[in-house]
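Hypothesis: this fold can be encoded by more than one sequence.
Test: take the structure tokens below, design a sequence, compare later.
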């Protein structure tokens, strides 16, 4: 048999265990991994000599917004012109694929885009595979919804929207913290009956909205953004007022993006000092209910510290506030580590305009705060694949899986700065660079 591509002399990472198998040959045909062997007697149309370098699966970003890339909420188009669909796909992919992100899940965009982008999961070797949740579902409110949100105004309309998305071929649904009852339960029950995966951004400044504990009881399994965790602990109006007063005494009003983000971090310190039993119980419940939780670390981190791609920019934070926020971030990361160690699969979710740069930054952040390289690769590959229901197709280098592969010039196992090193990207069995 002649294979399409052979990656020779590779050090293959087994992401489930962290084992590195040396002198392996990855044999690929029709975009799939056919065989992984140390035998030398094979024929292939093309060969790449990895020269002993580390070879890992492609990254999976489980939370992106194309509106960020196409102009944010103010400037993103309501429609994608028919003659520009390919250009938009190329523009979006440029933010992800060169950095090793071979699969990403869109968590909200204008519904008018749906018919044009639903096929962007087709395995084209030139682009990242983009899956979509359609519009992020919210209940009816007086204010206008954001461009990526979609209002369902009754239990029946929520059910019908999920069924409509299922008929269109969607396999994922996004619920936002502005989705209330009875719409929330209707979405969960309908999606579950159709074997669709539901992801929820739960937790808000308003304690009247649903908490993580309440949504666990209703069957939600996948949660967005570790920073939201404390807002399901600070639940009563009196306690919220107490915390709000506490935050304003240190930071002033949360009237800028950086102060809103620092408020999330200060909430971690608040519960760490005042409600440790409650957060420990919540983490226990999350583990018992087989949930997953996403990261979204980069946007917060760059408000108070520079990194490889993101210099520290001027903002409204004082030197004292920055130092306090650094300490608060460390508290948040300690809880994230505890969640991971308790068996809750953590997955990467950049939620950022600069998706690929942010993902690599998040890997470095995880390393800086005590996650092992083995854990980090599992978080950024297999955990995400399993959460989005594609664990049998992507997320690890195994026979029968899609050949989405990264060959590293320098191994992150040697130095965490090497996450930013040069990489050779293989997408669906095709070398891109």
């Amino acid at each position: 048999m002649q294979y399409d591509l052979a990656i020779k002399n590779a050090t293959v990472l087994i992401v489930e265990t962290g084992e590195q198998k040396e002198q392996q040959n990855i044999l690929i045909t029709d975009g799939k991994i056919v065989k992984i062997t140390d035998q030398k007697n094979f024929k292939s149309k093309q060969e790449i000599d990895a020269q002993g370098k580390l070879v890992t699966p492609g990254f999976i970003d489980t939370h992106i917004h194309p509106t960020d890339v196409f102009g944010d909420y103010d400037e993103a188009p309501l429609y994608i012109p028919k003659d520009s669909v390919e250009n938009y796909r190329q523009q979006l992919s440029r933010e992800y694929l060169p950095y090793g992100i071979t699969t990403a899940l869109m968590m909200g965009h204008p519904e008018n885009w749906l018919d044009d982008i639903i096929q962007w999961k087709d395995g084209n070797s030139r682009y990242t595979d983009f899956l979509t949740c359609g519009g992020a579902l919210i209940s009816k409110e007086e204010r206008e919804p954001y461009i990526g949100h979609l209002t369902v105004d009754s239990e029946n309309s929520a059910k019908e929207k999920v069924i409509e998305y299922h008929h269109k071929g969607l396999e994922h649904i996004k619920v936002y913290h502005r989705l209330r009852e009875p719409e929330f339960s209707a979405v969960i029950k309908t999606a579950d009956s159709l074997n669709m995966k539901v992801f929820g951004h739960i937790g808000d400044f308003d304690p009247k909205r649903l908490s993580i504990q309440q949504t666990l009881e209703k069957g939600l399994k996948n949660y967005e953004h570790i920073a939201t965790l404390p807002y399901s602990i600070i639940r009563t109006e009196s306690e919220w007022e107490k915390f709000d007063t506490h935050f304003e005494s240190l930071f002033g009003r949360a009237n800028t993006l950086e102060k809103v983000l620092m408020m999330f971090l200060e909430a971690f310190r608040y519960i760490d000092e005042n409600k440790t039993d409650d957060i420990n119980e919540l983490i226990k419940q999350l583990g018992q209910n087989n949930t997953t939780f996403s990261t979204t670390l980069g946007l917060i981190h760059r408000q108070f510290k520079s990194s490889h791609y993101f210099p520290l920019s001027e903002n409204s934070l004082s030197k004292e506030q920055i130092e306090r926020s650094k300490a608060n971030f460390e508290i948040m990361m300690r809880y994230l580590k505890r969640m991971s160690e308790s068996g809750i699969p953590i997955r990467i979710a950049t939620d950022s305009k600069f998706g690929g740069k942010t993902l690599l930054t998040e890997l470095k952040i995880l390393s800086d705060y005590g996650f092992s390289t083995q854990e980090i690769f599992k978080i950024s590959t297999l955990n995400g694949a399993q959460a989005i229901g594609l664990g049998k197709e992507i997320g690890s280098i195994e026979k029968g899986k899609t050949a989405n592969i990264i060959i590293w010039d320098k191994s992150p196992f040697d130095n965490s700065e090497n996450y930013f090193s040069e990489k050779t990207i293989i997408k669906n069995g095709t070398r891109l660079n």
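The CA atoms of residues 258 and 316 lie 7 Å apart. The two ends are 26 Å apart (CA to CA).
Hypothesis status: open.
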